[in-house]
Amino acid sequence: MSGSAGNADGEAEAPTGSRRAIVAKRVDSGEADLAEISQLAAAAGYEVAGELTQTRTEDAAFMFGEGKVAELRDLVRRTDAEAVIVDNDVGPYQTFNIGGVLPEGVEVVDRFTLILEIFGQRANTRKAQLQVELAELRYELPRAEAKASLAKRDERPGFMGLGEYDESVERDIKRQISEIRDELESIAEKEEARREQRRDSGFELVALAGYTNAGKSTLMRRLADELAVDENDDRHRDLDTTAESQDMLFTTLGTTTRRAEMEKRDVLLTDTVGFISDLPHWLVESFESTLDSVYRADLVLLVVDASEPVAEMREKLVTSHDTLYERNEAPVVTVFNKVDRLAPGELAEKRAALSGVAPDPIAVSAKTGAGVAELRDRVEDELPDWERERLVLPVSDDAMSLVSWVHDHGYVAEETYAGDQVTVDFEAKPSIVARARAKAAEVSAPPAEESA
Ligand SMILES: Nc1nc2c(ncn2[C@@H]2O[C@H](COP(=O)(O)OP(=O)(O)OP(=O)(O)O)[C@@H](O)[C@H]2O)c(=O)[nH]1
Ligand SMILES: [Mg+2]
């Protein structure tokens, strides 16, 4: 029914053909690192045709120094690039000014626009599309004014293809934003209701979170049953049927929920969009309803790629904690993934170096499966405590259906029959134990003979 929306066989996608782009970045001090912006460019379908960096304070008009912008123009000409991707928070006027120096038709793309391009390409559900649209509009809003005055000055007619501009554009953007917010809110409410319903059915909700490309989806497949959630819970279909993995940033955009194999607990594991640094709050907020699957979980597994250098791991952990900080309600367990790539001794060193941001991490390889059994145990340990209860019931049809309900909603340690009595010794969430007691009271009650 749900046509497979993603690309099927791990074939690297080139959604828009290869557009050639220059990646550029300015830093106040030190050396500009283009690794991540280049990966983002590749994820958006660009081929990186050239690089340019500058260490200097920000130029108000051009972001880079004017001489550097001239260099950029020459590089664009030489490489025949169609776009310049700037890994800085480029203001509307700076964008306009850089564009004015570049050959006609060459686009200036900043980090956020690039990320939105990637999200736009991956958005295959109504919710994802709305979130991307919301983020685009929120990006556009402060620029609308700048464009209006630029267009009025007629310095470059049809600036960014938007033709005439007036205040009504701003009003229109605001109206669209509020409409999309309303729709997203109603989606979020439905999802919250679904989470509650799942909790009522005895499931614990565990979410995978972490920087993009940390290995969340790969770990999901390790931990989860092949059984898709909708087979357990047929009223609700989750999004994609598979959580894809690729060595690419933002492979996952939507949310996938699977039942995870645990010893005692019934766990629903959710994989979702990864975190990335230097995102403005409006962009993170636009994806709030997707991030709710993390924020509202019972436990968060914060996955980090442990094959990266300590400094990078630390930065990514800090970004992840910042993203979680405001809204997250659940306990967090840090998972050092990709330990198959570590040299002997490296794990201990990294653990020690990162103990401040990653206390007591659990080390796994989602690829080989090493450490995954320990991770399962750890998840069960960290989930909120269960209560123990023992019910003695008269054997009857009602009692048997209660016993099977208890099996479905908790962990039965022992079930014994003696004479016409059955005893179930079990553990479950406090709310489940309370419901089991109430049901037991009904089952055990003497046949209806209430006096009138
Ligand atoms: N060597 C090694 N590679 C891994 C391991 N886990 C994941 N990978 C690789 O890391 C890359 C990213 O994995 P994903 O599972 O797509 O990562 P993700 O966190 O879901 O990434 P996004 O959805 O893009 O945010 C893929 O190429 C995986 O094959 C691991 O334990 N060891
Ligand atoms: Mg993923």
Automatic annotation (TrEMBL):
Belongs to the TRAFAC class OBG-HflX-like GTPase superfamily. HflX GTPase family. Its main location: cytoplasm. Gene3D superfamilies: 6.10.250.2860, GTPase HflX, N-terminal domain (3.40.50.11060), P-loop containing nucleotide triphosphate hydrolases (3.40.50.300). Keywords: Coiled coil, Cytoplasm, GTP-binding, Magnesium, Metal-binding, Nucleotide-binding. GTPase that associates with the 50S ribosomal subunit and may have a role during protein synthesis or ribosome biogenesis. This is GTPase HflX. Mg(2+) binds at S217, T252. GO terms for molecular function: GTP binding; GTPase activity; metal ion binding; ribosome binding. HAMAP family: GTPase_HflX. GTP binds at residues 210-217, 271-274, 337-340, 365-367.
